Fold this sequence. Notes:
Number of strands: 16
Largest sheet: 8 strands, mixed
Strand content: 25-35%
Shape: globular
Amino acid sequence: MKISCVQMDMLFASPEENFKRAAKLIEKAAKESPDVIVLPETWNTGFFPRESLESFCDTEGSRVKSEIGALAKRFSVNIVAGSVANFSGGKVYNSSYVFDRKGECVSRYDKTHLFTPMGEDGFFQKGENLSVFELGGVKCAVVICYDIRFPELTRTLALKGIQVLFTVSQWPKVRIPHLLALTKARAIENQMFVACCNSCGKAGETVYGGNSVIYDPWGETLSRGDDGEGIISADCDMSVVDGIRSSINVFCDRRAELYKL
């Protein structure tokens, strides 16, 4: 599975411009024939406009489904469409949509852990469900930014048999060492590929740090970005997952009866 992460510099509270920019970057990434293209967190609005938030939101993911789904079909590529500020059922969610090569939506995941230090919980609704899906026969899942700090979530997904974890984020430059450490740890402890697509640029006073990265199940870096807009790619050999899980079988050796979460 070849994965390409689009490290996007979005414009704050400017969905029209951001949809155009995302489309151009997806088209550029598609020229390298990846199996999966990944976008960052809340790329339609930036993270996040507090005033009139609902007016900037997608509604039930309709625009993402229409435009990004169409690009998935046009280029015959799977797209993990990062996440978008999404108005759904009278509430605002931080929602990730995933599309297969036919442009069909195969997953919606609403961010379950909201970043209280920036007041995300005061504007967004917590998601209540996880999502596991397949892309080209590979079992995958997606988490959103702050989610990666909760190993219980990632281990729950790993126990469902996922081989690739997509992490979409708006992670600030000042804490990039944490992002790299956390994503690498999740890859090693769960023996799976982790593809992290982070944003770059500035929103208000916050500078986002890029450094999108793709780790293999050994924690080896397959590709890593810098702090500017761009695309990183890596070929991920799924046989590595089977190999490490058979040679160091942490899932067999777990003592679930002792864990009280």
